[in-house]
Write a structure and sequence with these properties.
With 358 residues, the protein is of the alpha/beta class. It is 30% helix and 26% strand. The protein contains 12 helices and 19 strands. The model has no long low-confidence stretch (mean pLDDT 96).
Amino acid sequence: MRAAVLHEIGQDKLDVLDDVEAVGFGPGRVRIRVRATGLCHSDLSAMAGVLPQPGPFVPGHEGAGEIVEVGEGVSHLKAGDRVVVCWLPACGTCPACKRGQTHLCLAGFLNAGTPNFKRPAGDVFGFAGTGTFAEEVVVDAGCAVPIPDDVPFDIAALIGCGVTTGLGAALNTADVEAGSSVAVIGCGGVGISAIQGARLKGAAEIVAVDPVVSRREAALKFGATKAISPEELADAKQSVTAGEGFDYVFEVVGRSATARTAYETTRRGGTLVVVGAGALDDFLQLSMFELFFDEKRILPSMYGGGDVLRSYERAIALWRAGRIDLAGLITHRVSLTDINEALDQMRTGVALRTCIEI
């Protein structure tokens, strides 16, 4: 079968090969025919070595498709079922799951150390234990979440990561208060979803911050009340909040420099939500005095900070009701053969989300 493979960490191009085989099928596992997958910035981060990932590997973790085959002991799925790929499944038995923090379950991360594919040259891993830039993938049954028939594969794929992460940051982690002021730094697919979440919660002012003009223009269509470049953020803090700072600031870039700016843009007693996935060796520096004196809440948001399955259901319900726009997030479409074109679209910022149709 065909799959897009990164041979070595640090390479900037993927090699689309037809000699890849999805492996690991057996009890408790399912085989999925991938139909659509989104390109998330985390895929690029893993390729660059910013996020830890063994190689060679097949990127992709934001996917949807249909069940081809189910292993022994899998009773809730059958061949032909439409599913979204969940890269962070909950085991249900670990301390985090028992506390109700299923998004902090580590079971999914353990899958990342087991090869999902093989080639004549040897084993190939799947990013985040999945690897959806392939025609088929074999995963634990818990990674395959059934979706209703009326949800298109491309929409379902977005719910599998970016939409759930951005919406959840606003709805779950921050629990944005109606009438509040919000700034979102980084307005790709995740940032736009955070904007939509803040709008749903009734934020009065939502300032979108991004260096790319097309993304700023898009942010206004999705609910931002103002869209500015990073250089204009200080002026916006003054004009929108009279210099006090925003009630909520979402950092959706994953860099310490941006997080520091976000902290300084948050009002005293306000909330900084860290959504971007950054590098292990990129440290955010804060003084002990300012932590005490400013009393700003710093809230990391992992995968939307809530129960993943409930978040999927909520996103679908909001989409059906017309309360959120998911189709509009897909600004570009390419085939698997043209996957490197999608990478360029992400790197230059021209795409909110590129859908890879497989």
